[in-house]
Each structure stands twice: as structure tokens, then as C-alpha cells.
Amino acid sequence: MEIELTINDESTTVAVESDDDLATVLRRNGYTGVKCGCDSGVCGASKVFVDGEVKMACGVDAQNVDDSEIETIEALGTQDDLHPIQEAFVDHFAVQCGFCIPGMIIEAKSLLANNPDPTEAEVRQAIDDNLCRCTGYQKSVDAILDAADRMHGDRSVAADGGSRIDSCRPGDAARDGDSDE
Amino acid sequence: MSDDTNDPQPDGGTASKPTSEEPPEFEEHPLEWDEPENNNKAPDERKSVSQPAEKFDDRKLVTGQAKYTADYEERFPDLAHAAVVRSEVPHGRVTAVDTTEAEALDGVYAVLTPWSDAVPDAKYTSAGQSYPEPSPWDMNVLNKHVRYIGDPIAAVAAEDASTAAAAADAIEVEYEEYDHVVDPEEAFDGDAPQLFADDEVENKIVGHDYSRNRMSNIEGEIGDVEAALEREDVHVHETEWETIRQSHAQIEKHTSLAYTDEDDRKVLITSTQVPNHTRRQLAHLFDIPIRDIRVKKPRVGGGFGGKQAMVVEPIPLALSLAADRPVMYEASRDEEFYAMRSRHPMKVRARTAVTDDGTIEAIDLYALSNTGAYGSHGMTVAGNVGSKPMPLYSKVPNARFEADIIHTNTPQTGAMRGYGAPQGTLALEGHLDEVARDLDFDPIEFRRQHYMEVGDLDEIAGMMGGEGAERRIRSCGLDECIERGKEAIGWDDLEQPPEPHRHRGIGMALSAQGTGVAGDELGAAQIMMNEDGSFHLQVGGVDIGTGADTAFIQIAAEVLGCDEDDIIVKSSDTDNTPFDYGAYASSTTYISGMAVKKAAEDAKERILEWASRMLDEPAENLETRDGEVYSEESGEAVTLEDVGYESVYGHDDREHILGKGTHSTEESPPPFAAQFVDVTVDEQTGEFEVNQLVVAVDCGVAINPGMAEGQVEGANHMSFEMAVSEGITVDEQGRAEVSDFDEYGLPSATETPPIESLLVETHEPTGPFGAKSVAEVPTNTVPPALSNAIREAVGVRINEMPVTAEKIKAALDQK
């Protein structure tokens, strides 16, 4: 079957098999920033916004999100214009292998939208189901607390460019892949 | 700091006390190290090294643009997906595999069994190690004799993952079942079922005795431990310790994509720590020349040793050959727990002989290691149970270590961060703490009497021979690690909780590791200059998320005097980067980084030669800095870009400036750590709360302090898990009882205490710019420090991991 989705502000129609979860559908359509670490909707790597609410995309039946608005990590900053949360993760060395980081950043964005000035305990609670094997969470927590300052204080940090690779977002002309909308 | 340093080493840390006798000469391990002048720069002279350079791939990682193996899927429109049929019996022989139904399914491209032509018959080891391999060849890609629930028997390639899974489900396997054994002591002693007939193993390892399910026995000794234990003037203490079967739990599952490219080359894009070893192993298995295989490592979502094994690669390769199309195999999370690798569960016995004045006369460790169904890293991991922690106490005259490595019908074990040192460190640091308390010595001072100092010849590391060979200690920051750790945790002013039944205590433990495998590693790099003054750095070293590529860039930039952004790093592609042993044994910065440094120096020599001609000044007057070559004498300068253009487009002469460097060494300097754990225990219930972890690490010079701290914190988190989580438990069939993260106790953000990492800088003259390793040593220390903290808080000793409220309560009830 086909479902209608708005993914990162672009309306699109995607093919969905009966047993597809949302993570599979998003990845198949080029949104590979959505990561799958557990197969069971518990590790947090596949987090996206579904109609404004954070969900683990691998635990969402794709057929149930027809007509939904989806926001993935690809909708946040770009490499030369990072979102303040992304900047903070980079500046705090909070990223090691990076596999869990898109999901953690999505969750951090949700947290800071609802609670602009969280305590450390609130940050830890917010990312409690974003499992990370690399960091011990210390630097991720520090980064999210700093991101709160950057977003709501007056400490916004200019991004300074840096190397980038071609976007893998659908519709991006620079892309040479095969997954079209 | 201790005040016994009468010959302080400016950068190397604590010096040894002078002895009345002249120290003997050890020509092969001189204290003086012929260090290149540029290797020992003061902190304020370093432009790239020690600076917080941005991790070069971070922007890709935080924006979701980085490519891990599974993300290559979209580049292969005809990609097939694999699924594997695994043994459902703990021990038996496959007598028949019915694939009819699977083959009849729409969208199935290939079905393989142990009898298929595309499946190699050769025996091999999955351990990704040097050659000749120090591990037995005891398994096949698909097995007829199955030895654990999870052994691969058949494999399928199909148009999508769900079709592959359905086809795998449709395969019927018939077995002749054998008796099985899951307990290592039972497997070793008595009439246990035998897992391997003698002729089922090639490349057998020292001390093997398959009639008793022993894959290997190793031992080493200096002095005479038994004689010391029998002395009348010593107290003999004996304790036993037990550790968990810990999962690597890297969030990216083992994933591997195989295809044949347009030049008929077999290509693996794979999440591995050991591209070159994987290439060699695949060549052996498939009887394909090494040159015809290409192993390419994209971004890797964590390894921790779990990907220092060729765990999945042969299956997609065999399937791609059979199906004549690209095949990707991504293990399921369930398979990660039962069919990939884990840390060896062990029992370790510690014995010491200690005199009344607190002199340790002898240390004896014995480890019984459960290697599971196959040998893999079993022998070398067990060796490190002794050879990593015991050298901490290099002043102890008699030391002995022995290990038996035993097969059971349980999931496979392998390399894991710390590599045996966590098990040995628990036993040794828990034991010494208990002895100190028993004999009424201060636990720290007791350790301090015996631990390593600069100048010591460490013979204990060499007592096992080969790996971790005898070495001279040229940098040691143990004293500073302890002092800074004590201060950070608040050692001297600990407040007790108001409730009388709750008690707070701090425990500490020390640790040492190695940096690379002494005499058994190689790293290589080459660097080519572009005409715009930038550089391409090609290095075999393997970044699995640690930031190694960034450290390589910083090392090269430091040598070349350019900005980090002017260096493009290409790593870990066997077609396009030089040889490297891979990311293991804490070797990457030390071995591969030194190769990068040499390559950069080689290129720099040519740059100075060209600049010398351009400036008409002798090369020895020239130096590079901030993207320029300048002359101290004349003040004249040319840019690296000028040199780049001139060298390739020059009127009279032309040269592409290329530098190369290879590095191997007999050295393996230990990094050190001092761990502190602050715990509050409720003596009524046994419930405990870890308030804080502090770990201070001497890693020499940190190439990138932010990244190094990250390594320390992540390692400490893994160590904390080893202390408080059950790991992978198995039932009486040897079946893993864990199938997802909910069941596996990977501590989450709220379950992890704050971790404070302290970098204690020393200077290791054998390492690039003074660096030694950082990423493993903090993996070893939380289990003993937590056990010691609970002992301090409520007076009971927990010897068996994980520490639980039930165990504490039971011990309190017995007190």
C-alpha cells in the first residue's frame, strides 16, 4: 500500500509493506540518519518526531502513521549550519561512534522545547531510553545542558563551516543514490 | 605525591628510589630512550597535539550524514539481504537440512548449507589477530558439528530482510543430539561430554587437552612463589572472584555487505576493527588470493573488541558468490547476544604471601576461563588476566600466573575492551584491599610500597613470554592519579548520611594496561601533498568511533605545521591504505599514530628540501608553522601552497611529495589508572547507590584531551556495567537468556552515576609526542573499587559480580 507522509516539511507518498515499521520506511527513502540498533523499539537510535511527538521509529507500524508529519535528524542543522544542540555535542566531544547520537539529539530537542532550562537529572531522565555504549553519558548530558544555554541564553555560537558531504535527503540534486520519493 | 622521589623525572612522573646496589644493565631495555628531538614538546609548544581539535567526522555524525555499513544499502539497487539458521540444540551433529520450502519462496536468491559448493570447507578462527594466529582453527563458516545454541548451520539471501527471515524459518534441520555441558568446572573435571575430537582442530594452542575440554593452559612465573608461600614469616591469603559474561552491546549491530566489483574483486564493506586481518582470513577460507579481496571499513558504530573478530563477513561473501549479487548481512539484536561474542566469564583465585611489615613476598593468580563453544581469543585473553594487572606490583619478587581455558556448550566469547585485564584487576585489586584491611594497613599505602615507578624493569609482564614482554617503565603517573583522584572524590571529608542504617564509603583500585602488543604489531601510513598545500593522509589505522582518525590528523598537522583542516584522512580500506593490524590492544594512537608521524616527517623532509631551493637557504635553517615554511635565519617564508605548486609544476624539476612511515616496536608501555567509587549502602536491605565514579588516568600526552576524556568515561561506564549488571546469563542448555536491551542491563543515563575523568599527563618517550594508550585501562577498575567501597561502607566483601543488594544483604546477615 501507499501512505502519505510529510517528512521534514516535504509531502510525499511512500510505499509500505504490511510488516514495515516506520524506521525501515524512512531509511528506504533515504533518511538514513534514522538508525536501528535493537529491532525492538528500546534503544532510542531511531527516534523521530511523529506529529510533534518523539517516537522510536522502529517501534511504529508504518501503516498507522498515514497522513502524519515526520521530522528526522536531517531536518535539524546541516554540517555547515549546525543546530545549537548539534553544535554543543560537537564542542563537548559528546560524540564517539555517533550511532546513537541522532536519536539522542532528537530527544534533546524535544526536551528543550518543553523545558528550556532543565536540571541535570531532568536531562538524564529525558535520554533514559537513548542507550549509548560509547560515552558513559557524561559528555552528552553536559552537551544538552550547554545547548539549553545556547538556545535560551545569549550564547549562540556561530558555526564555522567545516567539511561536509553530499546530503542524502531525497530531492537533493547533489545526491547520486537511487531512493527517490 | 610521595616524597621519595630524589630524582624526579621532568615529564615521566615518579622515579624509583635509588638502591644501594648499582642497577644491572639491561641493554635491551634501556631507561634512556633515543627520542627524536621533536617528540618531546612542552605543552605550550604544541600547536595541534593536546589541543581540542574538532573530531573530523562529528558534523556528519550529528547531522545523520555519516555512512555506516547498513547505510550503503541505497547504493546497491539489487542488494539481497541475508538471514542465518542457527543451531537450536546445544551439542549435536546436523544430519539433514531440508531447504526445499525455503528455495521455493519468491524472492529467495540463494540457500546455503554446510554441503553447498559456495561454502568453504576450511577450518578457521574468527579471532582477528596477527599471523600465525594464536588461536585454534576450530570452526567452519556453516557447521555440521554444532556446539552451542546459535552455531550457524544454513544461510539465505533474499530480496528483502523479511523474505530472508521467512526462508530461514522454513528450513528444517535434523540433528543427532549429544550430551552437553555448560559449567566450565564440570567441563574440565570429570566425565563431561567432549566438544572437540582431537582431529577437529587445526592450529592447536599450547596446553590443549580436548579430552578435558581444555583449549589451552598457560603459565608463567618469576622467582619461586611456592617457596615464598611456605615461609614461616608470611601471612598467606587466598580469595576467589567471579565475573560476568558481558556483552559488547555496541549499538550498531555486526553488519557486513559483500559484492564483486567491476574489476572482479571481492569487496566487503564491513563494520570491523581489523580490515587487514579480515582480508587475510577470508583469503584463507575461500582460497582467494589476498590481493583479490578488498575490505573497506566505513563509519563503525562501536566495536569494543566485538568487531575484532570475523564474525559475520564470510556469510554475505559466500551468499554473494552463490547469488551473484551484493548481499548484506545485519545481525539481529537477539543474535548479538547469543551468536556474536562476549567477554569471557571467569573465576580467578588470588593468593599472596605478606610479611608482618606489609611486604608482599609473592602474588599468585589462577584463572579458569570459560571460552564457550570455540577457542577464538581464549588463550591470549586469559594471558592478559595476569600480564596486565600483575605488573602494577613490579617490586614483588615472586609472581606466578596460570590459566585454564575451557570449552563449554555456551555462546562464543572473544576480545573485549580490557581483554582479560578486568577479570584480573578485580581479583588482584580486591584481594590486595582485603589483605591490607585484614593486616590493618592503609590500602593505598600498602599498594604504594610495591607499585611501579619510572626506571623499574617490569619482569612480571614478561613472565608469560611473548605478549606483554618484559619492559622498562619510562613514564608513570600513579602517584598523581591517586592524589588527584582522592581530591576529586572527597576522600578526606566524606559525609555520612543522616540515617544510622545507611553508610557511605569510598573504595579505590589501581590498574595498568599495555599500549599495543609488544613485538607483534604494525601500523603504516602514507601522506601525499596536494598542490594547494593540503595533504592526503592514508592510514591503515582503524577508527571505530574513538576519534583515531582525528588523532592521526592532529599528529600529522603537528609535524607538518599546518591546520588540521588541511589534512584529508582516508583510513581502513585495504585497497587504498597501507597495512595495519587494526584497532585493538590499545594500539591505535601509539602504533598507527607513530606511523603517521613518521610519514609526515618523511613528507616534511621533502617539503623543506623544496623550500630550501625556493628560498635559497639550507634546509636545516627551515621549519614549518601555520601553513608556511620559514627561515629562522632570514625571516623569509614560502607557503605550503607555494611548495605544493612548485613541486608538481616546477620548470626545472618536478616531484610529487610523498611521505611514508611504518612502525612496529617491542615496547608496550603501560598507561595507569586510579579509580575511586563513592557508594552509600543501606545495611537493612543491602541496597546501594553509587554516588560518583572518579577515574584518573595517566595516558602520557593526550593527543586530544576531549576525546581522551570521552574514552575514559565510556570505558568507565562499561566497567561500571561489569560491576552491577548480570550480563548475558545462560540457562542449563547454554541458551542465552537475553534477547534485547530491556533484558540486558546496559545502564542508562539515569542508572549511570556521574563520571569524572582526570587526565594525568606524563611523557612516554616511545610514543608519538609522548602518548600512550587511554581507552582500555579505565575498563578494569570499577568492579574491584566498588567491592572495596562496599567493604569500606558496611564491612562485607562481595567477590562475585555483579554486586547486588541481595548479595550484600546475605553477606551482612552472615556477619
Automatic annotation (TrEMBL), chain B:
SUPFAM superfamilies: CO dehydrogenase molybdoprotein N-domain-like, Molybdenum cofactor-binding domain. Keywords: Molybdenum, Oxidoreductase. It comes from the Archaea. PANTHER family: ALDEHYDE OXIDASE 1-RELATED, XANTHINE DEHYDROGENASE. GO terms for molecular function: iron ion binding; oxidoreductase activity. Residues 63-179 form the Aldehyde oxidase/xanthine dehydrogenase a/b hammerhead domain. Residues 1-61 are annotated as: Disordered. Pfam families: Ald_Xan_dh_C, MoCoBD_1, MoCoBD_2. This is Hypoxanthine oxidase. Gene3D superfamilies: Aldehyde oxidase/xanthine dehydrogenase, a/b hammerhead, Aldehyde oxidase/xanthine dehydrogenase, molybdopterin binding domain. Residues 42-61 have a biased composition (Basic and acidic residues).
